[in-house]
Write a structure and sequence with these properties.
Blueprint lengths: L2 H15 L1 H17 L1 H23 L13 H16 L7 H23 L7 H10 L2 H11 L6 H22 L1 H6 L1 H43 L5 H8 L12 E11 L10 H16 L4 E2 L2 E2 L3 E5 L3 E6 L11 H23 L7 E14 L7 E4 L1 H10 L5 H13 L6 E5 L1 H5 L3 H4 L3 E4 L3 H5 L12 E7 L1
Parallel strand pairs: 6-8
Antiparallel strand pairs: 1-5, 1-6, 2-3, 4-5, 6-7, 8-10, 9-10
Helix pairs in contact: 1-10, 3-4, 4-5, 5-7, 5-8, 7-10, 8-10, 12-13
Length: 470
């Protein structure tokens, strides 16, 4: 099947599948036609035709000339009254395509009435022959124009409508004057045929517009849905309003507490659903981060920065403000504890044969937002806080510190444990309730010095603090 023949079938099938929406569009287009230039143009045509016919027949002393002014009274009334009627009752627009049909048939019958009035003079008068010549061929134009525009969902309805309209006009003309009918046999056929062709072109164009408009809307909605997976809702709204992507997120330098999460010994996990486990875990973390999200001003529980395979990095305080009035440190620790609880739930659902535990590092320092300079312009953060948080999480890998963590866990009756390690400035900023959760390690302790322990990327640190969790 050629593409040319396949396209109409595609449009037809789509319109049939979305018949209600197609009907609504046809109704709306019929309503617009009745309230805009098409109806106004027809109104001018009816008025001019009535006036010209009246003047012509008056000059020929036709005693019925005055009545020719009113032959198009009904279609003129429809055009004039429809806009006011819809203001009174908006539900009238549901019948706009039937009103178009009424406008067409009354206009065609108005022409028949005009023919009757024009030809009503004595058959032997000179004006009678002149009138026949004057009306010669006009019926083709009337039939073509009266049957060209239809707003029905199926073309076979238009065919039946046009056949009835043409039959009514032809019968009326025959009853008015068989002589005029015989003179216009060919124009009648031409007008009906031309109206059928124009109505098909009109219908097919309407159907094509509906298909393209609807599928374009579907594509745009799909693109919108996919874009919503890449950016935040407030970014979508600003982009819709014409703003640039680079203006939708903070870019100036700020302060934040960065949370770096990592699964301990994740490379040793052997399970057929490992990927699903991490996807479910990070989805839970995202829900925690998005808690209380709003955009005026920008705030949420935390900001999800990135996923790193088996790790998750988030920030509290930048670019989103915290959702409560507690200190930034309290908000960060509260978020970390929520994440550990979510992690334990996911591990329980995972039902692995061995314990799976995690570690987090929290650090407070400067950060700054940025969009990548080229390609996909994803939003990112950089700054000392990210480096330091990562190093604090990695402190668990230091043998001398791990021994201290393990001994503390044994005191708590834990063989395997989650651990939260925070920077000194974070600890000092905590409220007493959260501060009591942590154990202190003095970095000048002889045990650490003798093992050549060095605190990298935070040379001013004198203590570190950790919290052992089940």
């Amino acid at each position: 099947m050629s593409r040319a023949s396949a396209e109409p079938q595609k449009y037809s099938a789509y319109c049939q599948e979305h018949i209600a929406e197609f009907r609504d569009q046809l109704r709306d287009e019929a309503d617009r036609a009745l309230t805009s230039w098409p109806a106004r143009t027809a109104l001018v045509l009816f008025i001019l035709s009535s006036l010209i016919t009246f003047l012509d027949q008056s000059s020929k002393s036709n005693p019925l000339a005055v009545y020719t002014i009113f032959t198009y009274a009904i279609p003129i009334s429809i055009v004039l009254l429809y806009p006011f009627a819809t203001l009174i009752s908006a539900s009238l627009t549901k019948f706009s395509y039937y009103i178009i049909d009424a406008l067409c048939i009354t206009a065609m019958l108005g022409f028949c009435m005009a023919v009757h009035l024009i030809l009503n003079g004595p058959a032997d008068s000179p004006s009678h022959s002149q009138n026949l010549l004057l009306l010669q061929g006009q019926i083709a134009f009337v039939l073509a124009l009266g049957t060209a525009f239809s707003f029905h969902t199926k073309f076979w309805i238009t065919i039946i409508r046009n056949a009835l309209f043409c039959g009514a006009v032809v019968l009326s003309i025959y009853l008015i004057s068989d002589e005029y009918f015989l003179m216009n046999r060919l124009p009648i056929f031409e007008g009906a045929f031309m109206g059928a062709m124009i109505s098909w072109v009109f219908y097919d164009g309407t159907r094509t517009r509906f298909y393209l408009k609807s599928t374009d809307a579907d594509v745009r909605q799909h693109l919108y849905n996919q874009l919503s997976k890449l950016v935040y809702p407030h970014q979508l709204e600003r982009i819709k309003l014409g703003d640039e992507l680079e203006n939708t997120m903070p870019l100036k330098e700020g302060k934040a507490i960065i949370n770096v999460f990592d699964v301990q010994r994740s490379s040793e996990i052997r399970h057929e659903k490992t990927a699903e486990f991490f996807m479910g875990l990070f989805q839970s973390f995202l829900q925690i981060c998005m808690k209380g999200y709003e955009h005026n001003p920008l705030r949420s529980q935390a900001f999800r920065l990135k996923e790193t395979g088996d790790g998750f990095i988030s920030s509290v305080g930048y670019p989103f403000l915290p959702i409560d009035s507690r200190s930034l440190a309290d908000s960060a620790v509260s978020t970390a504890l929520l994440m550990f609880a979510a992690f334990n739930r996911e591990v329980e659902k995972f039902n692995y044969s061995r314990p799976i535990k995690a570690a987090m590092g929290l650090a407070y320092n400067s950060v700054q937002g940025t969009f990548q300079s080229g390609g996909i312009r994803s939003y990112d953060l950089f700054g000392d806080a990210l480096i330091q948080a990562s190093k604090y999480e990695e402190l668990r890998k230091q043998p001398v510190l791990w021994d201290l963590f393990t001994k503390r866990a044994e005191v708590l009756g834990l063989e395997d444990f989650n651990i939260l390690i925070v920077q000194e400035v974070v600890y000092n900023s905590l409220s007493p309730a959260y501060r009591d959760l942590f154990e202190e390690i003095d970095l000048s302790d002889e045990l650490l010095v003798s093992n050549n322990f060095q605190m990298m990327y935070d040379n001013e640190a004198k203590y570190i603090y950790y919290h052992i969790l089940e």
